[in-house]
Design a protein that fits this description.
151 residues, mainly alpha, 2 domains
């Protein structure tokens, strides 16, 4: 008796399209707005507007009835995020908020050549990198000093 594995292609089965070619070159058909547009639109609504849309005989409608009238959802959500940070601190929530408010911190640092291509097998290159890292560690009290390159 031979065993078969579900969802496994048979060997030698050709692809529908050649490798690297999209089966839908025009892209997905537009069926509405982007998430960003929807989030902005809902944020601009007032709780009573959302209740009129979803009704008040469900969990969402019942919860929305308790919110103050005449205050846009974006302000209510922002106040709730700040309340969560005050009473239930969460580093991921804080990071997400700060990334949105101040911009994400860049992770790349060019310690070498200001964009010029280099040969990373070069001993002189490695020595210079280690010297720069050592000076940064010393200046910030972040680590050991006098690092020597591998022999």
């Amino acid at each position: 008796m031979t065993k078969t594995v579900a969802n496994k292609k048979k060997a030698g089965t050709p692809h529908r399209w050649p490798k690297g070619v999209s089966g839908n070159p025009a892209g997905r058909a537009k069926d509405g707005e982007s998430w960003a547009a929807i989030i902005k639109e809902v944020g601009d609504l007032y709780p009573e507007d959302i209740i009129a849309f979803v009704g008040d005989n469900n969990d969402l409608g019942r919860e929305l009835k308790h919110l103050p009238k005449g205050v846009q959802m974006k302000y209510l959500v922002t106040a709730r995020v700040f309340a969560a940070l005050m009473f239930e601190p969460n580093p991921r929530l804080w990071t997400g908020l700060m990334d949105r408010a101040e911009g994400k911190v860049a992770d790349k640092i060019d310690l070498t050549t200001q964009g010029e291509k280099i040969n990373n097998n070069d001993d002189e290159f490695r020595t210079e990198i280690l010297r720069k890292l050592d000076s940064i560690a010393t200046a910030t009290s972040a680590g050991a000093t006098n690092i020597q390159p591998d022999e």
